[in-house]
């Protein structure tokens, strides 16, 4: 006979977030069409087509400007390659070309230019922003949980503003100055991708920022837990359970096994969740947390003699 206390052993209060996943175990909160519209996909294709045309035909293959623009465009493309994997909740490190693309990108360095160049600050600023985006996306991938749960710790940031560096870029581009036209396209392409990244961060905000989680009163063990809820859950549905335990975020996969109506008016449902395939380390972390909590509660309940 199984131990009934395996799932509900001790009452604790925890910051917690419950995130539904699909039947394949993937996060449901970031549909591609909500992150990147069909119109924007067409716009990105247009940017790429125009850039390809200008870079292939507008510059001498040996020119310094050609190389600088090639580097910027190549790195923006690498950023998008990383971003597309995250949009689909895929670990880019599993892709065959990941190591090659990463090595190629690591070969680039900030472009050099004459100090008198009026567009040099814009080019360097653009390079640094691309660098920041790529570093951030790589970090999201490296700190993922099992290559499926991606945490975005950095807040959405304003899009790149070329006017901070050059005030007349649009005027120069409209008058037909080729470097200005290419830079305009590069900035617009980068900002479109930056906009998608910001939407992705917002879609993952609840799982990324534990300070905003609800404090749940749960009956917890290493086998599972129960909690009071304002709304019902679908029986046997799967979810990722995010719990903040001793200042560390623990993420477990759980299945809804029971749902009982309670006498609480504010919380009319008690939901029972079974953990699925916890690691030994996760079981130990939960057990030690409970033991410490139980000990502290016991000590507080004892009146010490003076």
UniProtKB/TrEMBL annotation:
Species for this entry: Thiomicrorhabdus lithotrophica
Protein name listed in UniProt: PilZ domain-containing protein
Superkingdom in the source lineage: Bacteria
Pfam families: PilZ
Domain PilZ: 211-287
């Amino acid at each position: 006979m199984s131990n009934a206390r395996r799932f509900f052993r001790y009452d604790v209060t925890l910051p917690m977030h419950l995130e539904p996943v699909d039947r394949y175990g993937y996060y449901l909160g970031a549909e591609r069409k909500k992150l990147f519209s069909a119109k924007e996909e067409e716009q990105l294709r247009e940017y790429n087509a125009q850039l390809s045309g200008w870079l292939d035909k507008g510059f001498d293959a040996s020119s310094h400007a050609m190389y600088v623009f090639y580097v910027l465009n190549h790195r923006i493309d690498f950023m998008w390659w990383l971003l597309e994997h995250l949009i689909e909740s895929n670990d880019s490190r599993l892709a065959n070309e990941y190591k090659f693309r990463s090595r190629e990108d690591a070969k680039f360095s900030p472009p050099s230019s004459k100090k008198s160049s009026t567009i040099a600050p814009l080019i360097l600023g653009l390079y640094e922003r691309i660098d920041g985006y790529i570093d951030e996306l790589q970090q999201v991938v490296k700190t993922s949980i099992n290559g499926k749960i991606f945490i975005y710790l950095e807040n959405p940031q304003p899009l790149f503003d070329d006017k901070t560096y050059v005030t007349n870029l649009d005027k120069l581009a409209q008058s037909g100055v080729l470097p200005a036209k290419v830079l305009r396209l590069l900035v617009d392409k980068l900002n479109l991708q930056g906009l998608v990244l910001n939407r992705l961060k917002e879609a993952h905000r609840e799982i990324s920022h534990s300070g905003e989680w609800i404090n749940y009163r749960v009956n917890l063990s290493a086998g599972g837990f129960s909690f009071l809820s304002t709304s019902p859950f679908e029986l046997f549905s799967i979810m990722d359970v995010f719990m903040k335990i001793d200042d560390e975020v623990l993420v477990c996969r759980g299945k809804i096994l029971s749902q009982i109506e309670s006498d609480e008016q504010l919380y009319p449902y008690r939901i029972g969740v079974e953990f699925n395939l916890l690691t030994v380390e996760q079981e130990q972390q939960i057990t030690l947390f409970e033991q410490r909590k139980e000990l502290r509660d016991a000590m507080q309940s004892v009146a010490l003699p003076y």
